[in-house]
Amino acid sequence: MSLKIRLARGGAKKRPYYRIVVADSRSPRDGRYIEKVGTHNPMVAKDHAERVVLNEERIKHWLSVGAQPTDRVARFLAAADLVGERTFNEQPKKSQPSAKTLERIREKEEKAREAAEAAAAAAAEAAEAPAEEAAEA
């Protein structure tokens, strides 16, 4: 039996409230679960203490038994330092910028680099001018 730590939706229409549960991966989203290990209330402010409530001891137990958190729950657990943060490296080709956009980005970077070099050269010349005047005096 493969276990998942996932969200089970509750609450009224347009007022979601989620239980963080440990369930068999084959059971339905809002169906039977083994244990409730926390809650998530997206309707409160992000810095509110009751937005995500976790029973850390039980979550550690279920992780040690082999339960796999879903992506969203893994974010909550990473924020609570219970698991390492996941990295998502795969990007589909559709979402990558086009060749023209990449060319524009390169041109913009080159212009910014040239402007920075010109500003540095102007600053160096300005610093040399007072030094020469002081040497003449």
From TrEMBL:
Cellular component GO terms, alphabetical? cytoplasm; small ribosomal subunit
Biased region (Low complexity) positions are: 117-129
The region called Disordered is annotated at 88-137
Q: Which UniProt keywords apply?
A: Ribonucleoprotein, Ribosomal protein
**What GO biological process term is on the record, naming one?**
translation
GO molecular function (one): structural constituent of ribosome
Output compositional bias ranges, type Basic and acidic residues.
101-116
| InterPro entries xrefs | Ribosomal_bS16 (IPR000307), Ribosomal_bS16_CS (IPR020592), Ribosomal_bS16_dom_sf (IPR023803)
- Please name the Pfam families in this protein's record: Ribosomal_S16 (PF00886)
Listed PANTHER family:
30S RIBOSOMAL PROTEIN S16 (PTHR12919), SMALL RIBOSOMAL SUBUNIT PROTEIN BS16M (PTHR12919:SF20)
Similarity comment: family membership: Belongs to the bacterial ribosomal protein bS16 family.
Name of the protein in its database record: Small ribosomal subunit protein bS16
Organism taxonomic ancestry: Bacteria, Pseudomonadati, Pseudomonadota, Alphaproteobacteria, Rhodospirillales
